[in-house]
Amino acid sequence: MQAAHKEHLYKLLVIGDLGVGKTSIIKRYVHQNFSSHYRATIGVDFALKVLHWDPETVVRLQLWDIAGQERFGNMTRVYYREAMGAFIVFDVTRPATFEAVTKWKNDLDSKLSLPNGKPVSVVLLANKCDQGKDVLTNNGLKMDQFCKEHGFVGWFETSAKENINIDEASRCLVKHILANE
Ligand code: GDP
Ligand code: MG
Fold this sequence. Notes:
This protein has 181 residues and is of the alpha/beta class. The chain is 31% helix and 27% strand.
């Protein structure tokens, strides 16, 4: 007999201020590469990542890259619609991008909730940790507390450049989404 086969398709948002590394994280995760050429995204980009979660479960992640509107610090309801989770990204070398994190979280929570009314799962990414300038997160306890207070399911120091913790962060998000269904 064949094992039951479950397939999930999840729309995931990647949001945060301009230049924090959103596009680079998606590229690293989906295409296994990194480029240091700055190219602001114009229009909405999608990337698909397929995870063989366990022998019975396939998870397809549709990653939505922000489209240049990040300079306004908020997105439209239409853009958020039907997302099942999100990554909010900041740049550890630029404190202002961390200050923007709560603004992004509030924008998301005010415009999107799951069909059951619960807030969507959100993982916080402290990106560019390869830069060695991380004064923001070196106190992990403070970050844990911040996540608790603001309703993040977890946080990770990441590097799109060095491929650090991106898979781990995604697994954490997917685990929470699966548990919420
Ligand atoms: P976005 O505007 O949030 O999509 O940011 P990008 O992905 O375009 O990245 C902005 C700049 O930061 C680019 O020059 C990237 O090469 C650089 N960058 C992105 N991620 C990292 C990282 O993890 N480490 C380092 N050192 N640079 C990064
Ligand atoms: Mg971009």
